[in-house]
Every structure is written in C-alpha cells, then in structure tokens.
Amino acid sequence: MRITLSSLLFLIGFNVLAQQPAPNKPKLVVGIVVDQMRYDYLYRFYDKYKAGGLKRLMTQGYNCRNHHYHYASTVTGPGHAHIFNGSVPAISGIVGNEWYDKTIGKTIYVVSDSTVNVVGEGSATAGKMSPRNMNVTSITDQLRIASQFKSKVIGIAFKDRGAILPAGHTGSAYWYDAGSGNWITSSYYTNELPVWVKNFNMKKLPQSYVAQTWNTLYPIETYTETEADDQPYEATISGETKAVFPHKVTMGSLAQTPFGNELTKEFALAALDAENLGQGAYTDFLTVSFSTPDYTGHAMGPQSKEIEDVYLRFDKNIEEILNKLDQKLGKGNYSVFLSADHGVAEIPAFLTKSKVPSGLFLGGELEKKAEAILNTRFGEGKYIISGDNYQFYMNLPLLKQKNISVDDVTLALKPELSKEAGIYNVINLQDGNYNAIPEYYRTKLNNLYNPKRSGEIMVLVEPAWLTGYTKGTTHGTMYAYDTHIPFLLFGWGINKGETTSPTYISDIAPTIAALLKILEPNGSTGKPVSAALK
To answer: Angle CA(506)–CA(40)–CA(49) in degrees, nearest 5?
Structure first.
C-alpha cells in the first residue's frame, strides 16, 4: 500500500495529538448553590427530570448522598459562606443572616457595609453590601491568590448574600435589585458596571416575564409527588389571594416564580460569554445561586405543587447551563459542583394533619416567654437585648449590675421553658456546657458559637417545631430536614460514582482545592472527598 506524504503527515500529527496529556486543570469551575434544596428532592422528582440536567450530574458525576451541615444554624448567609470557605461560624463569624454584634452594640446584616455604595441603577441601600463581615477566605479567594489574581471569579444570585459570600473577598459579585428590576453591584468591587451588565439590564427581561402566567410545566394531574394544590396552610405569593395555579406574575412576585431562576440562568450565561470565562490560561470560577426555591418553599412548603414545578423547571435550567458549557468549553474541560445552603421543614399544619408531632412558635414568642421568666426570677429589667436564630443575646451590663451569671440565666430558663411543648432544652451556648445533648448535636453547636456574634443562650426546639407564621414554613435547625442537602460533583477530574459515607459542607472547599491543587481556605475545617477525585 502506497502512503502519500500528506497521509504520513496526518498520521504523525494524529499520533502526536493522541499522545498529548489531558489538561492538568479545568478551564472553569462552576459552583451552583440552590437556595433551600432538601436532599430528597433529587429523588422525589427524579422520574420527571430529563437526562441532560440533574440526572446528568447524578449519573455521570459523583453523588455524596449523606451530605450534611456541620453546624446548628441552617440559614442562607452561613450556608453560602461555608460551602465556599469550608469553615464554621465559630471561626468565620458568619453566624446568621443577621446577628447582634457585641463589639458595636447593634444588629448587623450578614453582608451590610456602610462604607460602599450602589453601582448600577438600583436603590441606594441595596448596594451597601460587601463580603467584609466574613473573617476567612473562600476557595474563590484561594484560586485568585494562587494565580496571582489572573483567574476570574464572578458570583451571581438574586440575593445579595448569595452572590457576595461565594465570590469571596477578591472576586466580583452581581445581584438583583427588585425595586428597579436591574442587576447591580457595589463600589467594593468597581466604580462602574461592565458594559455587558448594562446591556443585559437594557433587555428588560423581568418585564417580559411579568407579561406571562406561571402555570405548570407539565399537566398538573401528573404532579403526583406532591399533595393537592389548594391547601389552607400555604401562603400566597405577592399580589394574589389564593395559592393555586395558574399564578399571575408581577415585579414583586418574580422571585417566587420559576422566572426568577430563569433570569438568574440567563444572567449567568451572559457572564460566561461576556467575561470569556474559561478561555484564558488560568482556571476561572463562576458561582451561581438560585434563590427562587427558597422564596417558593417558604410560602408553599415542600409538599406543594409549586415547589414540584420549580424543581422540574430548575432541572431544565441546569441542562441549559451544561449544554452551554459543552458548547463553549468542550465536554470534560470544566468542573461543576452543586449543593444547597439549607433544607426546609415541613409545614407544621401538614404534619399535624398527617398525625406527625409538630408545632409552631409565633414571631417572638420564645423571647417573650424567656423575658417573663427572668423578670419573675430576678426582678424587673430588660434582660434580652436581641433574639435571633433561636439564640438570646443577653444584656450583659444588667447581668453584671445584678450579679447574675449566664449560668444563672440558663438555670432559671431551662426548667421553665422545657415544660413548654416543642422545647427540647435550653443551653449556655457561651461556655459549651451541654453534655446532656447527644454528641452528634454537640459538635454542631460547638461549631456555631462565635464570642463576638453569637447569643449566650440557645433554645433547642424539638424536631418538626419551628419559629414562624401560621402559613408557610422555614428552616434553621440542627435536624436532618434542614441539614441534609445535595452535593454533586461533575466534569473534569471527577470520578463517576456515589457514597453514603458521611460528608459535610466543610468538605466542599477542600475538595475543590484538591481538584485545583491549591491551598484550602484559611479557616477550612473539612477534608477532601478523595473518592470523588481522579
């Protein structure tokens, strides 16, 4: 057989290409956070998910099926922070969405920053945000440092805290201003919005969504994984009088509908294109948080037709993102992980109807009960300065004046509050003196307490009890329905498989650090999920 010169050159070239090693790093890491995604949602709606979305992550990637939060306050700010910093509230200082800061004597929002201003067309207060309240680095910071700040990092979410905390101290972050319908940032990051963000805002996508109606993606009679649509304990979305399909969409209710996720996805894909993410010599990092499931879940609960539809549509959003990454970067050239900032409790009225023990503390009921007990025991006074995350911030100057210790307060509250239905125990969170609590929960409580930002006393509610309102539900406890969330890894450097061995939120950042061969964040307490990595 005669071989021509061109054929010989082709064979030589093909052989050289075949012998080239695989890339030693992904072009891009995409960290996806779902705001309020309980682990069971992966499987409850599995049969309706399409092959290219969540199923693709689950079947072609690595699935940590026994993945939990490692501390006892499961809310949005800490969840987003610790997914990316691998730390604990005790070290990071991110103890809640809000806290009473004892060093300055006032309540602080998790990403508030009075020294910065809004950048873009949005309300002035919406732009006074930055990551300065977080005392540790994130995995995104570590990537920037490792590349001498040549890697790009962009955080995106409807909620400011969902964009800011994952992007760390050194990245860029954009969030949605509901009042103006625009994506904005703050002067912490830049003094002017990039042209691509301005152009995106000019499309007026929120207004186009408002012109539509939210109906189910598939025939509602096929939504057999959730209960009947019309339930008296479901809250309504903004502008409506009844929590049933179809729903009218307004600018005020956009975040509570799948169009909020759709807008977030579109903005993320615009960032991918405009910033040329994954196209340079260094690994880039895109963080995307989908806030809609939290807004919908709070109002309608995990057994609602609305939450089922949100997740079936979210599955399509994931498929679109993966398809875009395939097209832009090539299959196998990027890495993705997906997790959630917390789970969610069932609506107490649903459980009561189903003969499951459950209950509700309305508004500031716990704080009022505790204040009354302390006034009876120690005399008149304002003993509790603030209450949040089931914690009481005590009036320490008053306690000192009356020669009352935090232990005295605990001993006064525990026998009285523990008589109340739904209260399991009352602990002195400050000194960690709660040996009667099972060790599994003690670890979560120890990881929570920060001396500058946590309350001194904590009320431990019983499972399926929550502080909230008569309609809808919430999250924030140390129990599995709030702590058990997904952790899926997919793409470059990731094995195919799954594990039911315990893994924790603190393990995510070290796993990504090991994947990228960089130093883990400086407050990290977790360890890599080695079985997931090639």
So the answer is: 110
Percentage, residues of the chain above pLDDT 90: 92
pTM assigned to the model? 0.94
Angle among Cα 39, 503, 531 to the nearest 5 degrees reads 110
In sequence order, which residues have a C-beta less than 8 Å from that of residue 5 and are 6 or more positions away?
Answer: none
Distance, in Å, from the CA atom of 175 to the CA atom of 177, rounded to the nearest integer, reads: 7
The radius of gyration computed from the CA coordinates of the chain, to the nearest angstrom, equals 24
At 409, list the tokens: 């307060």
Cβ-Cβ contacts under 8 Å for 365 (sequence gap 6 or more):
467
Quick one: the chain helix, strand, coil %, rounded to 5? 35, 20, 45
CA distance 192 to 120: 7
At 433, is the pLDDT very low, low, confident or very high (cuts 50, 70, 90)?
confident
Query: In terms of DSSP bridges, do strands 503-504 and 98-101 run parallel, antiparallel, or are they unpaired?
Result: unpaired
**CATH of region 353-468, choose from 3.40.980.20, 3.30.1360.150, 2.30.250.10, 3.40.50.2000:** 3.30.1360.150
d(CA 205, CA 264): 11
The answer to whether the CB of 389 falls within 8 A of the CB of 474 is no
User: Which of 23, 60, 39, 24 is closest to 336 using CA atoms?
Assistant: 60
Long-range contacts of 49-52 (CB under 8 A, 24+ apart): 49/312, 49/315, 50/315, 50/316, 50/319, 52/319, 52/322, 52/323
What is each CA distance from 277 to 57, 262, 412, 493, in whole angstroms? 21, 20, 57, 19
Distance between CA 317 and CA 303 in Å, rounded?
Answer: 22
So which residues are the catalytic ones? 76
Backbone torsions φ then ψ of 182, nearest 5 degrees: -115, 155
- Tokens at 533, concatenated: 């990595």
Pairwise CA distance, residues 187 & 371, whole Å: 42
Q: How far apart are CA 350 and CA 344, in angstroms?
A: 14
Strand locations in 204-296 (E):
213-214, 247-248, 284-290
Q: pLDDT by residue (tens digit) across 490-534?
A: 999 999 999 999 999 999 999 999 999 999 999 999 999 999 999
C-beta of residue 142 within 8 angstroms of C-beta of residue 175: no
Which pLDDT belongs to residue 238?
A: 83
Fold of 28-343+484-532: Alkaline Phosphatase, subunit A (3.40.720)
Between CA 110 and CA 275 the distance in angstroms is: 28
Distance CA(348)–CA(343), nearest Å, equals 15
For the stretch 293-323, pLDDT in tens is 999 999 999 999 999 999 999 999 999 999 9
Give the whole-angstrom CA distance, residue 319 versus residue 51.
8
In the chain, domain spans: 28-343+484-532, 353-468
